[in-house]
Amino acid sequence: MSEAKWYVVHTYSGYENKVKANIEKTIENRKLQDQILEVTVPMQDVVELKNGVAKQSQKKLFPGYVLVNMFMNDDTWYVVRNTRGVTGFVGPGSKPVPLTEAEMEPLGISVANAAASEVVVNFEVGDAVTVTAEAWKNMVGVIKSINPGKQSVVIHVDMFGRETPLELSFTEVKKM
Asked: Considering the domain 128-175 in this protein, what is its CATH number?
């Protein structure tokens, strides 16, 4: 398989977050975590002045667009292209064109960093782990899935008598 690349997906304006959620749900349902690695809506922090009061907020960097890091093949193309709210990939005709490294740099995405930051983990699905992240510190959970592309794990913890999923980075959990 070739390497994963970043592609730009055009959406209906205002549907960016919905498209992101729909693609992520499809990835989970079709078990494509190893082919579609990340879906993101680039945001920027802005300060707005309303009635003389400065207010910090986030705005979409590219309204009407979503970035997808994926291995391009017929299956992944079909899944993304046929997601509700998607009008198509950016590129001539039906041929998506991946972003170049120069185009990704201003977005804070670096191909070199992504390749160099491969992390070797000492845990696997089914292992019990302790959470080290502040909000959930010292909670114990069981790993349900590992996503090397996002460098994250999904664990289930017991909260209020119910099993609750948490997605955490590799650095926020340690094996028991």
From this structure: 2.30.30.30
